[in-house]
Amino acid sequence: MFPFSYTRVSDTREAVDAGRRGGRYIAGGTTLVDLMRETVERPESLVDISGLPLREVRAIEGGGLRIGALVTMAEAAAHPTVRALFPVISQSLELSASAQLRNMATIGGNIMQRTRCTYFRDVTADCNKREPGSGCAAREGHNRAHAILGTSDACVATHPSDVAVAFAALEATVHLLGPDGERRLPFAGFLLRPGNTPNREQAVRQGELITAIEIPALPRPLKSGYLKVRDRQSYEFALTSAAVALHVRGGVIREAKVAAGGVGTVPWKLPAVERHLVGERPSAALWAAAAERAADGARPLRHNRFKPELLKRTVERQLRVVGGTK
């Protein structure tokens, strides 16, 4: 590791001030410390925010949900309000990492985590995300686990978070506090596609601190769930995943929220699938037809040409699990 300073803050304004001066926020440290050890990240100053009062989980008016940024993954997954209102969030968290990591990692840190692309983490490899303008070794290298949606010539790395897929499906909002005050950012605009600037991954301004994630109230009854397909059952990132939430009333799908993970440079919302579902009656044929739209626009690479078909099957299976089959 390279030398760095360390400051522990006691309130959010103190944290924002330290962040404005260039400090990097750290709580559980399950991602940043690894990157520092590997010399991928070299922050000069760390700001420990683990003592801030951002650990509340509560239902909000109308049946929505607010999760504080410093709630751990384990706490959020086990919380009875989360499990009752949005099982898709609990399931996505329970399928992430190991129990030890879930006990340390926070919700805010989880959605800020950087890619697990091996070329990004290998400081000897070309990586535009780590060193802009150096190239993307993954495009011509081994790219089985890489993205097929939202890619650019500059980057094909997937976003690793499972719960971010659930947040994308549910159209969450990120609450931020910065030097200019409070700000709310739709989750769809929080994580950035690589384009020509893959090194800029989130729409967070200098000094801004994530304070909470808010899930809007959705019509009830609402059934939801998360499916993760991976090479091994535990401690593995997704090849594909699907977060699904359906509101069915009078035998007709009134609202559908669907997103995919493991295939996009950001958690990938699937509006074409959602449109195909709304207004229709649940059936095996409907699930299959809707899932055919899941890979629209996919650009597979040499080693991940299996992903479009796997994505369709993943979405179809999770639609069937959440919505039932008649």
From TrEMBL:
Q: Is the Oxidoreductase keyword given for this protein?
A: yes
* InterPro entries noted in UniProt: CO_DH_flav_C (IPR005107), CO_DH_flav_C_dom_sf (IPR036683), Diverse_Substr_Oxidored (IPR051312), FAD-bd_PCMH (IPR016166), FAD-bd_PCMH-like_sf (IPR036318), FAD-bd_PCMH_sub1 (IPR016167), FAD-bd_PCMH_sub2 (IPR016169), Mopterin_DH_FAD-bd (IPR002346)
SMART domains for this protein: CO_deh_flav_C
PROSITE patterns (alphabetical): FAD_PCMH (PS51387)
Any single Pfam family the record assigns to this protein:
FAD_binding_5
**Keyword annotations:** Oxidoreductase
Q: Please verify whether the record's keywords include Oxidoreductase.
A: yes
> Ranges for the FAD-binding PCMH-type domain?
1-220
Entry protein name: Xanthine dehydrogenase family protein subunit M
Which source organism? Streptomyces hebeiensis
Source species taxonomy: Bacteria, Bacillati, Actinomycetota, Actinomycetes, Kitasatosporales
